[in-house]
Amino acid sequence: MVERSAIRILVLDDESFMLKLLNRVLANLGFTSVILCDSGRVALESIDANSRPNIILLDLNMPEMDGIEFVRHLVERHYTGSLILVSGEDERMLQTAEKLVQAHKIPILGHLHKPVRPESLSLLLDKWTPPSSSGQGIPKKVYHAEELQAALNNRELVNYYQPKVAVASGEVIGVETLVRWNHPVDGLVFPDMFIGVAEAFGLIDELTQRVFSNALIQAKVWREEGIRLRVAVNVSMDNLASLSFLNFVADMTAEVGIAPQDIVLEVTESRLMQDTRAPLEILTRLRLKRFRLSIDDFGTGHSSLAQLRDIPFDELKIDQGFVHHAWSNETLMAMYEASLSLARQLGMEVVAEGVEDRNDWDLLQRTGCDLAQGAFVSRPMLPAELPGWIEIWHERVRTELSLGKR
Ligand code: C2E
Ligand code: CA
Ligand code: CA
Question: What's the whole-model pTM score?
Fold first, then answer.
């Protein structure tokens, strides 16, 4: 624990009355190393003069330089401390501002409404930890295409599986396969670190085909053990640029002997497509062959209404950003409910992602969402763990969730 008096706090607010008030509150809480600034310009001068604040209490609404512009200047100066936003604006505005700050990778402890309550301020300040112990600032490793190609050749990519369960009955309906890289030096590497590289360097076809065939073979093994599940595979838009993917998927599925209805292709558009005709044609033909199509991360990026209009999806996955904590947040709730109702009207099955706790689960039940996926049900696991997990889950369904047999 760092002594409160040793934590350097800069308070930036254009109202001198607020500055005095916050200064008093901070002093009462034991924070005595405080710098008061009544404009962004003064605060930046202080930082340039090496005042090195650990935490900045930042008012969003200021004449001249507002809080958001101030954050931009902090980014330019590679500010390494944390931020607390303070404003009289409504909750939604504060949340939007918080997102903006996060996008700049500046650690944010939270936001406060004016008038500031000392207890709330104290709680937020206590969240601060020195950068060395908080793990922040570790640069993200970037992998080269050659390394990824070698990993493909050496079969270092492994499929993990995360269950999708029916909310009403608790029944395990299927699994989504999520790729990981079992890196000989770095350990288990997550897809966010290499899918982009694969897409940029023309390796995504090989990667998806590898993941797809692993998943199909695994599905077959489970079937032989009496576990019949739908298997979902993530498909990149880049996979849908040529006919080779369609042919591969159709041939492989026929060869392994699994019905296309039991295979779900989850599609996200990670960036704007130049030419949407090819993916449209390929998705439509996959659908005609009875593969199930799912629109992934709905509500984010480009997974949106235009896609829903153009492609005959069977399933809509509400992005985890609109699910976790929606029960306590009006904005998220509105987005969650709108997505749910849109899917209903189009006759699609709905999966809520990011179901992390009992409150999230209860919301899904109240609102009649079809399927749930997330840590509350299970984190992604290795295939060998699935049969054991199913038994434990069935037990939870009966006891903790009191579903099923009534
Ligand atoms: P996604 O398709 O949206 O997959 C869901 C992600 O949410 C997974 O991250 C999963 O581990 C994570 N997750 C599951 N439950 C929870 C929860 O309760 N809370 C939170 N916060 N997260 C949860 P993962 O495995 O790191 O995958 C990230 C993304 O990488 C995937 O997002 C998908 O877009 C992509 N990806 C994964 N495997 C493949 C693949 O084989 N091919 C392609 N093209 N993309 C893949
Ligand atoms: Ca997915
Ligand atoms: Ca998703």
Answer: 0.74
